[in-house]
Amino acid sequence: MNAGDYFKKSVIETFTARNGLNLDFIISTVIALTIAILLGFLIQFLYKKYYGGVVYSSSFAMTLVGMTILTCSLTLAISSNIVISLGMVGALSIVRYRTAIKDPMDLLYLFWSISIGIIVAAQIYPLAAITMIVMYILVKRFYALKKNGMIYILVIHYEGDVTGAKIMKLLGSQHYQIKSKTMRKENVELTVEFRNKHDNLVVADMINEISGVKDVNLIQYNGEYNG
Question: Is residue 226 part of a domain?
């Protein structure tokens, strides 16, 4: 059978066999979509639990569920008939997505949802389970490392060399780096970056109580934006 005969046969099957629908296909589709829904909601739950940004977006979380389901449905449709697959390739080639992904982790979750949808539609359920377990371990490990090594930016306004010496003495217990030091006569602005393994930030309160310190601004830094 040459390529022309194959396409003709596929077209005939599309219109004479009710678009290729049969009992086995319906059962496998229902099973695949059910698993895709469950795994999609599991990805959404993990995204919410291990979200490390500033403002949690519930709409993006629901996008992960929809992405898993739609990818599974699309893959099932493509795998059912070559004519449908060619039509969808042509239709999707003109689609442009302009929503910017600011957090690289959000992009990871999107590809995670798409991958699970494709794997489930291909009915490779053991691979889907292994992928979920591996990704869960990676996300949990990344979250633990990030939680135990928060980076903070400390901006201190003070006056006098004596006050500066007291501040540096308190910072001696931290792993810190001086990012900038701006001096205007007796007034000094000191910017320090330090890593804290715990949520205990007593050092900022202690610095604020030093005589000569005007104000202290503590900012959590995650590499993308301030929070």
Answer: no
